[in-house]
């Protein structure tokens, strides 16, 4: 191979696509992976089923990216969700689309997706070295010349693609190596934070309801400002209570949108989003009339699961044993209020060990969006979760990794070979 090779650091979603697209564009490629196998994090995505991408149209795709969506235009132009699905199916793995346009292998096995990518890499002639950890980049005269391994071995390269992932699920090898190398090379780093992660609450009562799942509720978040309060999130869907607070799809998405300082944030759960206050009040009056001789908990059991119903009464300052026929108009208003806005306060986000992705990372201002080449160092390209681009759950983040990997790899190959790819 000589030193005309491209080295890709990281054998995850972005790294495998970078290696594949670089090799298909005619370059000699060496893929370095610190783990004993490729795609270790892919194995655990989608609860082991691998939520490969999302079948939404690209307009919806862009709307689902929280930070720096415009940075993704060129990457998606090269490899969008449809292209990624074709790539996997061309390797003999049929796919299916589920609720929320989530795309999975028909087999429900993430290993099939990784197998497909491995076959594609083998066919493209990519050299893979496992159990090989990169320690640093050798940069001379603002040009990346080689990669130094933790063993001290130095491997020369014409171009390097940095695709080491973020900090989420550190057990898979995402321990910040890429951030450290990028920063040493002069790139700005937006503080990495856990994202798509459960939330610990100030209130302890969710712990008493641990495991209880809520469907068709509306979760909203508000931030208190110097002059007025601002709503930063409000969506309908599913969530659940845990021993430390709250989790589930609504909560994971919210976690990516919260400010780092949570002291001015409050949350509300609308348990009856389909009913306005007036309609809900009429429902309460009807139930009270039908069950006038019963205890209040009996009415509440018809409106919420029993364990939650008891807690709602406590929040409203009422007793479960109170006779329905003794409830005052003021007490009914308190019940209505709590059903429409269960109050919670976030204490902190759970850690990187539980985070699906990392928010923050290498500043996109230091990366050319058309090629993913570094603006700081010649011959260096950056891709995947390492970058300050993140999105909602549902396959969007994996597609970002695949697409940026493909563009970084192809761009690196054009630089090295001097030829435009025939893809």
Number of helices: 13
The best one-word shape is: elongated
Radius of gyration: 25 Å
Taken together, the total number of domains comes to 2
Identify the strand order in the major beta sheet. Answer: 18-17-14-15-16-13-19
- The CATH topology name of the largest domain reads FAD/NAD(P)-binding domain
The whole-number mean of residue pLDDT values reads 95
Number of strand elements: 22
Assign the CATH architecture of the largest domain: 3-Layer(bba) Sandwich
- Strand-residue fraction? 25-35%
Distance between the termini: 23 Å
Structural class: alpha+beta
Description:
The protein is α+β, with helices and mostly antiparallel strands and 423 residues long. It has two domains: 2-195 and 359-417, FAD/NAD(P)-binding domain (3-Layer(bba) Sandwich), CATH 3.50.50; 198-350, no CATH class. It contains 13 helices and 22 strands. α9 (277-290) packs across α12 (329-340). It is elongated and about 85 Å long. The mean pLDDT is 95.
What is this structure's SSE topology?
Elements: E1 6-9, H1 13-24, E2 29-32, H2 40-44, E3 53-54, H3 58-63, E4 65-67, H4 73-78, H5 81-90, E5 95-98, E6 102-105, H6 110-124, E7 127-129, E8 134-140, E9 143-149, E10 154-156, E11 159-162, H7 177-184, E12 189-195, E13 199-201, E14 213-224, E15 229-241, E16 245-247, H8 249-255, E17 265-270, H9 277-290, H10 296-301, H11 306-315, H12 329-340, E18 342-344, E19 346-349, E20 357-362, E21 380-382, E22 390-391, H13 396-417
Parallel strand pairs: 1-2, 1-11, 2-7, 11-21
Antiparallel strand pairs: 3-6, 4-22, 5-6, 8-9, 9-10, 12-20, 13-16, 13-19, 14-15, 14-17, 15-16, 17-18
């Amino acid at each position: 191979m000589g030193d005309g090779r491209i080295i890709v650091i990281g054998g995850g979603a972005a790294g495998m696509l970078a290696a594949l697209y670089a090799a298909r564009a005619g370059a000699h490629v060496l893929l370095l992976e610190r783990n004993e196998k490729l795609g270790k994090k892919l194995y655990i995505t989608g609860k082991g089923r691998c939520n490969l991408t999302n079948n939404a149209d690209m307009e919806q795709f862009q709307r689902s990216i929280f930070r720096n969506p415009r940075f993704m235009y060129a990457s998606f132009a090269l490899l969008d969700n449809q292209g990624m699905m074709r790539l996997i199916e061309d390797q003999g793995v049929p796919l299916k689309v589920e609720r929320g346009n989530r795309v999975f292998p028909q087999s429900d096995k993430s290993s099939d997706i990784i197998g497909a990518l491995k076959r594609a890499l083998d066919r493209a002639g990519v050299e893979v070295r496992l159990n090989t950890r990169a320690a640093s980049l050798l940069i001379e005269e603002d040009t990346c010349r080689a990669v130094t391994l933790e063993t001290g071995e130095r491997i020369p390269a014409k171009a390097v693609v940095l695709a080491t992932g973020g900090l989420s699920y550190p057990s898979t090898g995402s321990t910040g190596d890429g951030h450290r190398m990028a920063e040493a090379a002069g790139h700005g780093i937006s503080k990495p934070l856990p994202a798509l992660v459960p939330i610990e609450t100030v209130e302890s009562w969710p712990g008493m309801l641990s495991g209880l799942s809520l469907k068709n509720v509306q979760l909203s978040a508000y931030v208190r400002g110097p002059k007025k309060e601002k709503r930063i999130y409000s969506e309908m869907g599913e969530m659940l209570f845990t021993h430390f607070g709250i989790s589930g799809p609504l909560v994971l998405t919210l976690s990516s949108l919260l400010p780092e300082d949570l002291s001015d944030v409050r949350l509300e759960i609308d348990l009856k989003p389909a009913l306005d206050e007036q309609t809900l009040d009429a429902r309460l009056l009807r139930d009270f009339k039908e069950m006038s001789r019963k205890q209040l908990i009996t009415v509440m059991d018809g409106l919420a699961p029993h364990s939650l119903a008891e807690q709602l009464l406590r929040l409203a300052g009422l007793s479960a044993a109170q006779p329905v026929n003794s409830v005052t108009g003021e007490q009914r208003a308190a019940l209505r209020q709590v059903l429409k806005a269960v109050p919670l306060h976030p204490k902190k986000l759970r850690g990187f060990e539980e985070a699906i992705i990392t928010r923050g990372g290498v500043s996109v201002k230091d990366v050319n969006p058309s090629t993913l080449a570094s603006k700081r160092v010649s011959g260096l390209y950056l891709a995947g979760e390492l970058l300050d681009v993140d999105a909602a759950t549902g396959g969007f983040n994996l597609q970002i990794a695949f697409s940026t990997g493909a563009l970084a790899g192809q761009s690196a190959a054009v630089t090295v070979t001097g030829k435009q790819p025939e893809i």
